[in-house]
Amino acid sequence: MSASPRKPGGTGPSGAGLPTLDDSERKVMMQLQEGLLLDYAERLEKYRRDRYAVHLHLSRLQPQNRREPQVQAAVQVFEPLVENNRAQVFSLHSGDVIAVFPGRVRDEIEADLIRIRFLFTDDPLLDEEGGRGDSLVTWYEMMRDYPAFLALAQRFFSASREERAARVEAAPAPVMHVFGRPKPRRLAPLSAGMLGRLEEALARTDLANLVRHQAVCAVVGRSTPQPMYSEIYVSISDLREIFVPDVDIVSDPWLFQHLSETLDRRVLSLVNAGRDNTLAGGYSININVKTILSQAFLDFDDGIAGGQRGSIVLEIQLYDVFADVGAYLFARDFARERGYRICIDGVTAATLCLIDRARLSADLVKLVWSDEVTAARAAGEAHPLVRAVARAGRKRMILSRIETPEAMRTGQDLGISMFQGHAIDRMLKDLHP
Amino acid sequence: MAQESEFVTPESLLLDTAERLSRMRAGRIAVRLHLSRLGPAYAGQAYVRIAARMFDPLAAAYRCQLFILSNGDLVATGKDMPFAEVDAVVFKLRTLFDTDPLVHDDPYGPNDAFCSWYDLEHDYDAFAAMAEQALAEAKEMRSRAAPPLRPMLPQDLERLLTRLSDETVLSFLSAQAAVQVSPLKGSKLAFQELFVALGMMMQKLLPGIDATSDRWLFQHICAALDRRVLAGVESLAFRGRALETGLNLNAATVLDPAFAAFVRRFPEVRFTVEFQLIDIFAHYGTFVSACDFLHARGFRAAIDTLSPLALWMIADADLPVDVYKLVWSPHLAAGHQSLTERDPSALIRTLGAERVVLIRCDAFDAIEWGLRQGLSVFQGHFVDETLVAGLAEGGS
Known about the structure:
Strand order of the largest sheet of chain A: 6-7-9-10-11-12-13-14
Strand content of chain B: 15-25%
Strand order of the largest sheet of chain B: 6-7-9-10-11-12-13-14
Number of helices of chain B: 19
Distance between the termini of chain B: 59 Å
Largest interface: A-B, 41 and 46 residues
Helix content of chain A: 40-55%
Strand content of chain A: 15-25%
Low-confidence stretches of chain A: 1-17, 171-185
Mean pLDDT of chain B: 91
Number of strands of chain B: 14
Helix content of chain B: 40-55%
Radius of gyration of chain A: 25 Å
Structural class of chain B: alpha/beta
Largest sheet of chain A: 8 strands, mixed, barrel
Oligomer: heterodimer
């Protein structure tokens, strides 16, 4: 899975590090904390008034104090401020943390710094001096210190870019992960501990930059694709590239599922926060049965205007239905009662033959394209897949992962008229360059 | 006890409200939805939360008050709420919980155990008594409640995995036999199922953590246990006798060389591998290959722990399995689905009774119902207590 970045033109003013990057480099850097810090610092120029920053030099602590739990504990001190959007916190690769905030929360920040110092009381760094401007903390008052702050952000950005370049050179060529393609070698398998650390890091990160849309379109005959709705998802390949480039995150199917569900829940809250204003048309989200039954979904539902629910599709994986059939039936009835539409996702040529859409009582079924679809077209009516498509309802079927126009036409020959995939994205792009 | 009475609970609020309403009975009705009486499939806060949400329109239109009791029951009361509108909500809830026989049992009649209605002008005393009883029951429930388990996190899983060794896992390995009951020929041991007593193992290795709270982490534990069991088991004798042996394994484990090595160590044993539905549908290709592997060796493939609804969902699917393990519950015999497509008797006929094993049989009713459906193999505590002991000692 990959898609173009949401802001292809870039946002920062010219002159500093960011605009000189090519698109793919920019995309990656904009998702690193250092890239975000520089972008933010550049924009801050206009909003210097009553703005402050603190730079926590956690990288100067003794190595035994620089272990992840302590650094995380330090970052977590700021969490209430971040959650209420009262401060912006950047957790840098070196371990340093930078918080930018308006004057009104200065007292809270001072209190937070006391708590953070308490975490590291036995470190010699804190023996040096107390008060402001000690070796652990540097303060910036933007009206006065903005140039120094911008320079600091630029230094971090360059260092991180160089470090990344060195790493890319040392490692085998980065491969965007696509299911089914050979996995890059020498990646460490994902362990439970790594998953935990990754999810903790994700919890502290704004994932808006990793959210992608992909249209589901109706294509009849040779007509142009008509977008029906957009699927919203987090790009797993970009996420891997940014957070765990040396880890094969699909190496353990169960741990990968756990990660996917965590990301799906984040999409739910992002969509809910109304931060995506490109969703005026219909959209779909990936969701599991357990989440539909959770408070998070009820909160999401509260934020949706009644009439809009009919244009929101909840995509549920087929295996999730079978994790607890009773729970699925309950969640489905509840969601449909509220007005949502249900799509069963992740159905393969083999599993389509096993299911009964009427029993699942879903509005839509999403079939993953495979060679089997071509084989079915060649074999005709007798092929079990052809019969299964007819039984499930051709008008309710979406053929997904369409990589070529031929794949789409094969689906059309089977009577399918809704498609999703990179080939469809390209057709749309040609229409609206 | 003074402290106890200061403790604000939904029940104490309900009782306060009931007392206040004694002077304002006119035009008031109340309903109690006994969600706590629903079957185990609907246990948990998630269902209560959604059921409570159905009262939102009444809260908006009539300032209906809703109490979510500690046991999950809902009590709603309001003034001048039209009966039809309240009934519409109750009907919606009956539809949501449609698969539970409770909601079909004498709706609106004297034996309706799902919903109790109170017209406060006439039934005030009953309503007040209900509120008092709810308070007493909640106190009793609190005093008995075990400390809640914390949901498992990936970090907990990592700690658990470092504490797992072949020896630890094997010390929690247990076996349960299934019995073939034949009214004419008597009974005999059919097979044994090996399983790891996970609850006990968790209590020892990671107390306070609920290993089943996250199904993906749980599946990862299962896969780790698969490997330990295959590596460590030295004997498969059931109380000194050779028996066909059922193993709970991930589909991927069956294709692992460790499984082939394991079955080579026990050439005299016929194996049945029991798969979980979620594993089957998450990795269907792997599952099919695993079944092929088993069938090529004369072994059997089974689907474990099927609820009646899951059985209905897959009854027509042509899965390459030999055995369907259906979980017994009194709901199976309740008959409320007898004329619907979910009728378990009809589903068993579709699959073939000889392929269905009734598991978790905890009462004689299970065996009686199963025999009427043409089933002959049974597993569960009731079977252990009444049949297995004698058969294991005395022979078939």
